[in-house]
Structure formats: C-alpha cells, structure tokens
Amino acid sequence: MKTLIIGASGQIGKMTTAKLLAQGHEVVALVRDKSKLSDLPQQGLTIIEQDLENDFSAAFDNCTQVIFAAGSGASTGADKTLLIDLWAAKRAVDFAKDHKLAHFIMVSSIGADAPDNIESSIKPYLVAKHMADEQLINSGLDYTIVRPGTLLNEPATKKYRIKRPESRQDAVISRENVAEALVYIAGKDSKTSQVFELFDGPEPITSFID
User: Fold this and answer.
1) pTM above 0.90, yes or no
2) NAD(P)-binding domain: which residues (predicted)?
3) Among 203, 206, 210, 196, CA closest to 162
C-alpha cells in the first residue's frame, strides 16, 4: 500500500509521514519545499515538490490512498484559505477519483459541520473546510473525515474521545495524537466511510474505529 500525504511538511503531515515510514509503509510526500523533509528516513519515501496552486495530479500515480493534511496556515489571508483549504482539497478529491484511489483521509476541523454556529475570524476557514468535506462526501470515494479539536503541541497519549466535550477548554487534541490516529486509519485494510470529531480523551483509537 502506497500512501500519498498532501501537506507532508506541515506539523501533522510530517509527523504522520515519519510514523508511517517507521512502520514500513511506502509514502509519497507532496510538499512545496523538499528540504523540510531532509531529516526524515529516505527508505520508502518519495518526495514530490509541487505547489498546490499548480497541477499536482501526477503525485497520485500508483498510490493506493491519500491523506490531505495541507492547510493555508494562520498567517495567510482569505485568498490562500480559498485556494488551499477549499480549492486544492476539491482538486485532490477529483484527482483521487481519476486515479481510482481506495481511500481518502481528510484532515478537517471541529466546527466544519456548521460554520454558521461559529462567529469568529476563523469562519472563512471553517466554510472552506465544510465545502471541501462536502465535495469528498459526495464524490463516491471511500473516505474518512477527521475533525480535530483545538490543536496543541503536546506529546501523544494515544488516547481519545469522539464526543465533543461540553467545555471548550477540553475540546483539544495534540497534533501528535492526530498523527497517530491518521496512521492507524491509513493502516487499516477495511475502509468504511465516516466523519468524526476527535479530541484527547481516555480511550484508545480502537474504541471508535474497528
């Protein structure tokens, strides 16, 4: 099984890439700057340097599944949110269909289910995520959409919950825990389309995903 990771030089994407390689997976890493992956093991790793605003369809060649972990970043404007979080994600879904990939794993966000419920500066980002998720859901592909809570830079506990906590302070998850969950999902043979939020919690990922 060969996994394409879009956004492999981002924090979650890079951790996911490293963990998959450590388990012996073949990984195709799509990045804008390949030097950002120079510290990763190269065995099993193919790096494709490409801007997501250009044609990146060739990255899907001979891949079995894809993880879309790309994001425009907090320091960019609405234009990049539109072009990366929405349009690049939409194009990735189209490319995955064209290449008949077996599974599409989307890293989305808490709040992407109902952006109108969030009145803040991140609403355009949530709208972009919502539309990208809808594109995937309606694509006919087998998919997993993961909607993490607020992201933290903490070590992985490998313990989770999928029910949204009542307190916003508890609706959090470490980036490494997200990466661990993505690795588990990518390593499964049977794929059942599903959408779920994900937070740090008390249970292993196997409690929620068979």
Assistant:
1) yes
2) 7-186
3) 196
